[in-house]
Amino acid sequence: MTKKMTITSIKKSKGASKLVMITAYDALFARLLEPSCDIILVGDSLNMSFAGKGDTLSATLEQMIYHTNAVAQGAKSSFLICDMPFGTYINPDEALRNSIRVFQETTVDALKIEGGEDKAHIIEHLCSNGIAVCGHIGLLPQAVRSEGGYKVKGKSQEEQEQLIRDAKAVERAGAFCMVIEGVKADVAKEVAKSVSIPVIGIGAGKDVDGQVLVFSDMLGLFEEFTPKFVKKYMDGASLVKGAIKSYSDEVRSGEFPQDIHTY
């Protein structure tokens, strides 16, 4: 990217061009991802990809601030969104206090809040106080324990209608875009059509306004499991293991280092 996107340009992309979002958690990968992506999300998925935890719930505000600052160092021209972790936006005042902290301690452009109608009043409170918000509806990773697992949404007429209500509530509250996760493709299409702000999908089909993936999933670095919606663009784990094995073999054999690697 030669020019950083803004909230205005993101909103104008609706119906004009697909948005490309990807997660990053450090400066190294952020620098590699930046040239090809419109938006970088510092996701609380780092709790699983980086920390090896079973879900995102124990991610802390301190972790998110640390990783957001790291990503900002590597991707100085990307529009940067930070996930607000579980338990940091349980009411409007606490949400604002924590959001202000993230804005003051990082150079993040916006924050992401999970929830639809039930969180609209919090989104509205943040937006009215200068905090840019990206919504997140559908499958909510922070609700995995209360829902008994990761469950695809939009399977019934009632769920479809609720998703549309959620999307409209998030838009009315002032969000400039939203993520829709784990939703039947035909339903996600209708949700995207129901609002005038971009709807970025993950496991929600192609008829939305953009896509987001966790970088370690799409690069094949995360081996424990691969969600159905993930396309692996390389077999990263095998490549890394092969390179480390070659290094190990050469050290043990004395082939490395050679004269060109020696002062």
From TrEMBL:
Any Gene Ontology CC annotation: cytoplasm
GO MF term list: 3-methyl-2-oxobutanoate hydroxymethyltransferase activity; magnesium ion binding; methyltransferase activity
Reaction catalysed by this enzyme: (6R)-5,10-methylene-5,6,7,8-tetrahydrofolate + 3-methyl-2-oxobutanoate + H2O = 2-dehydropantoate + (6S)-5,6,7,8-tetrahydrofolate
Cofactor binding, per record: Binds 1 Mg(2+) ion per subunit.
Residues annotated for 3-methyl-2-oxobutanoate binding in this entry: 44-45, 83, 112
Major location (coarse): cytoplasm
Positions with a binding annotation for Mg(2+): 44, 83, 114
Record pathway: Cofactor biosynthesis; (R)-pantothenate biosynthesis; (R)-pantoate from 3-methyl-2-oxobutanoate: step 1/2
Localization per Swiss-Prot or TrEMBL: Cytoplasm
Family: Belongs to the PanB family.
HAMAP family xrefs: PanB (MF_00156)
Name of this chain's protein: 3-methyl-2-oxobutanoate hydroxymethyltransferase
Species whose genome carries this gene: Sulfurimonas crateris
Taxon lineage: Bacteria, Pseudomonadati, Campylobacterota, Epsilonproteobacteria, Campylobacterales
